[in-house]
Amino acid sequence: MTTIDAPAATLNPAERAERGKAARTLAPRSGHARWETPHEREDPVAVLQRQATTRVPELVPLRHERMLVSPFTFYRGAAAIMAADLATTASTGISVQCCGDAHLANFGGFDSPERDLVFDINDFDETLTGPWEWDIKRLAASIAIAAQDREFDEEVGRNAVRETVRSYRQAMRTFATMSNLDVWYARLNLQGVLDRWKGRVTSADMKRLDRLVAKAGTKNSLKAFTKLTEQVDGQTRIISDPPLIVRLEDLVPADRVGDLTNEITTWLRSYRSTLQPDRALLLESYRVVDIARKVVGVGSVGTRCWIVLLLGRDDADPLFLQLKEAEASVFERFLSPSEYPEHGRRVVEGQRLMQASSDIFLGWDQLTAIDGVDRDFYVRQLWDGKVSADLTTMSPTVLPEYGGMCGWTLARAHARSGDRIAIGAYLGSSTTFDRAMADFAFAYAAQNERDYAAVIAAARDGRLATA
After folding, report:
1. Which residues lie closer than 8 Å to 171 by C-beta, 6 or more apart?
2. What's the pLDDT at 130?
3. What are phi and psi of 229, to 5 degrees?
4. pLDDT (tens digit, 9 = 90+) per residue, 319-376?
5. Beta-carbon neighbour count of residue 189 at 10 Å?
6. CA–CA distance, 316 with 323 (Å, rounded to integer)
7. How far apart are alpha carbons 334 and 49 in whole angstroms?
8. Lowest-confidence pick of 39-48, 72-81, 363-372, 452-461
9. How many CB atoms lie within 10 A of CB 203?
């Protein structure tokens, strides 16, 4: 596997910095402020309708309904719409491993393999090699939309965007001075971050945040086992809760359940080959007990997602794995295709490259779905100390702090794969880029509002199905 930005490997630091500064001619930093709706822009309703053609038909209305809760939930599901828009914006030509969907709700805390609670990006369905600017623009716009969703004054929102981008810029410049290994080992310990927040946010905010961290410590396979299973005739079974959770035996004829269960069990043995040998050996100590389809997220609703309950040494030793379908990245229509033919592998390799530490059971393989079609899937634990910020209660003092965490984390992820020295030199020490991104974020938030209104109208007149 080659480096993402091959020239960076052949240049010394001074030459790489000069390359970054020279990119200001190609894409002036202040120019990133501009957003104008393209004349031949595709109808956002058509984008959603096209995506629906590859999804589980009965779940598509639920996806649309979740998106239409608010402009922010719409934005969460509109990665494909924005990808087309980002492709029309200026770029320095410096590539990184992109998240592809770097909005602020796709960051959060989870347990590392060492059982430390870390903060990182936690969704990589759209990951692909691409312009670093696309990720930071999607993150910046999400901050603006979140601020509007909370009905904050515009200056509060602009300050939060500037703080997010400032954190990205300064972190990238710091990473530019660090050794390759030091960049690789850099991570955000969530408890350490909260300790630094004391005195910078209100006591009420700190209490809410402390509760979130405490909750993460209990959100594991044992908690999922308690919440998602029941005893039926002495056997442990996943609780069916249609359409959110539907057991396999409720989706296919009774005479197919046994064969499909065996197929998934065999598939799990095949997927183990994508794990480290020690982790594959650990997985072998579990047995499959039950399988169900589960609805997850907002934008992902309608893609095939399975949860598999496994038990270890006894019935009190559960493990929940999530098998999630991986489709083509929304970036692939506008960039080079992934070097990996399997989209599950694309997701996993991108996640391993961008995250400081990843789930020990993260892997991939192809699976013949219940409709008989071979599809790409990736695997991870269902819950592993995962915690997400509650955006509905986020205060004006917390939003810029949280945005700063996201900005630092995104910079660290980009620094691991791209030319951090060139990007840091391009960004510079002034606030030019920060201010430009605030202008872009609010201009794009207005675009998101227009798209949201168009999709609402399509749902009302029946062009777009809702639950």
Report:
1. 407, 408, 411, 412, 415
2. 97
3. -125, 165
4. 999 999 999 999 999 999 999 999 999 999 999 999 999 999 999 999 887 788 899 9
5. 15
6. 22
7. 19
8. 363-372
9. 9
Q: Print burial letters for 25-39: b (CB count within 10 Å at least 16), e (below 16).
A: eebebeebbebeeee
List of residues 6+ apart from 174 with CB closer than 8 A: none
| Nearest residue to 378 (alpha-carbon basis) of 393, 397, 359, 394 | 359
Q: What is the DSSP string of 247-304?
A: EGGGTS-HHHHHHHHHHHHHHHHHHGGGS-HHHHHHHHT-EEEEEEEE--SSTTBTB-
- Identify the sign of the CA torsion 137, 139, 144, 145: positive
Torsion of CA 321, 338, 352, 344, to 10 degrees: 10
* Pairwise CA distance, residues 307 & 241, whole Å: 13
Q: Give pTM, 2 decimals.
A: 0.94
For the chain, percent of residues with pLDDT exceeding 70:
97
Task: Give DSSP secondary structure letters for 161-222.
Answer: HHHHHHHHHHHHHHHHHS-HHHHHH--EEHHHHHHHHBTTB-HHHHHHHHHHHHHHTT-SHH
* Contact indicator for 138, 299 with CB cutoff of 8 Å: no
CA proximity to 161, closest of 231, 242, 104: 104
CA–CA gap between residue 6 and residue 22 (Å, rounded): 17
Q: Which residues contact 217 (CB under 8 A, 6 or more apart)?
A: 117, 385
Sequence-ordered list of residues with C-beta below 8 angstroms from that of 449, at least 6 positions apart, any chain: 71
- Bridge partners for 229 per DSSP: 238
Residues 305, 293 contacting (CB under 8 angstroms): yes
User: Hey, what amino acid is at 460?
Assistant: R
Q: How far apart are CA 147 and CA 132, in angstroms?
A: 24
**Any idea what DSSP says for residue 38?**
-
96: β partners: 130
> 325 has which bridge partners?
377
Q: Say which residue the tokens 């090699």 belong to.
A: 129
In degrees rounded to 5, what are phi and psi of residue 239?
-75, 125
Widest CA span of the chain, in angstroms? 71
**Three-state secondary structure call for residue 88:** coil
145 closest CA partner among 394, 334, 354, 329: 394
